Amino acid sequence: MLTLNIGNRLRAGRWLLLAMLLVLHGVLLVGVNSPWAHPLMLAHLGLFLIWQPLWRGDGQVSVRALVFIAVAALVVVFYLNWWVMAFWLIGLFGLVGGRVLAYRSIWARVFSLTQMVYLLTLLLLWVVPNLFAAEHSIEIGRLLLSYVLPVLLPALLLLPADDRGAETTQTIDFFYSLLLFMLLALVVLGCLAFMTLAHVDYLDALLRTLFLMGLILLAMGGLWNPLFGFNGLQVVFSRYLLNIGTPFENWLMRLADAAQHEPDAESYLASAMLLLVDLHWLSGLSWQTPGKAGQLGQFSPHAVVMHEADLRLTVYAKQALSPTVTMHLRLLSQLVGYFYQAKQREQSLRDITRMQTVYETGSRLTHDLKNMLQSLLSLTVIAQSGEARAQQLLQQQLPSLTRRIEQTLSKLQLPPTEDSDASMLPLSAWWDGLHQRNQHLQIAWHAPQEISDQYIPAALFDCVLDNLLDNALHKRQLQPDLLVKVELRCAGALSISVCDSGSPVPANTLPNLLQSVVVSQQGLGIGLYQAAKWAAQLGYRLELTCNQNGKVCFELRG
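RE: above sequence
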């Protein structure tokens, strides 16, 4: 149990970091010229390699990492001096400071900030004075190194331990660490500049440098988020944060252009993968959808797998990706996935539109067949009645019925188009045919003395009038005294209306009448909906102009 507890603490890095700092303190206490400094520094370097957050402890060390370790060991053995110690402390300060923002616990942040204070004190009050041979500052630093700082390290053990988020603390903010490294290096070099040019002692140069750095940081803070109209450095700098190898805005525009020009989802996905593999830090990628799979480039051990709805995307990088680049990569994959889903929905809508066209065409032909069968039934009744003028009526109606049957058969053989549906006839000829075809019915016909010879789409007018008359005659079966009137008006805009003296259309049917399919016992449903939609396609309008008890009128107008 004790072994497991120690292992957990070592993995958390708390005790390991304290051991590393204690060995480093011993190196500085004996001095870089002491024969004990080299073995102690090698021990410190070994502890650092176990603690460091740059490479995962369970991962395989790359060739570059081995070269770095070998170079660091050679420097420690042969070139250990105060300059090396100064830049080593600056690097440790940046690494510790880069992990502060990764902690969620306030006590974990206090623990890291205390380490930063310790490293900063070692650097500015002991290493740099020895580097610049500042005798007075060296005496002050020796007192701190011998009596104060040795107490500070064990005091860190008194801080409450909070090891939550240990995995999170294994990552650092590279930008924040680099900023701390450069800032602290600038302080050291600024002290050197003041001591050389102004000929002042080290403490005076340190105070001047810190004061000047404070003024510069204050000015940068004001320029970063200004108050007086200037946009600030934040807006100028923010576009570089989104740069992941190519300008983010240009990549987005190319992705949107591909979504606009590619006809289907799979071809768009192939174009998006070509754009994605152009990123120089990627070696290859592979994707898989329910209908297709593909791959580009070369595979590598550094793979990131992402899922977006039906899209499974695997990205292979040339080297291990940092958390920031991984976040950007997931954002790019989400954009590709959203555009891919949009293209899928667009394709589904096209399929639905095709099916709707087929349905509307079939529905329209069904009603044409129904109207022709009703006309044929009327002619059959007339032929069986034995009336003297039955032969004359059959000779008048059969050519018109034959023409309509031929038109319907042609529509069944070839897909109907707008032009085929709009076969034109003179209005007077069409009106005479309508009157003769229905003269055996009890309908009141009203038309002007002179009917204009303007051409109309005969198929549309036949469909609309046959539906309206069929509905009116169906109402007459339920209401025997119902009167039906058909009126043609040519003055001004062309219009033809069918009115009956029956009961009005129910109120619950009115909102959807002529707009969609309605449920009705009187047949005012899909037939009128298809007729109204067809009329709108050809530039006409079918509407209910009057809906009163005793007067129900439908009108087709141009």
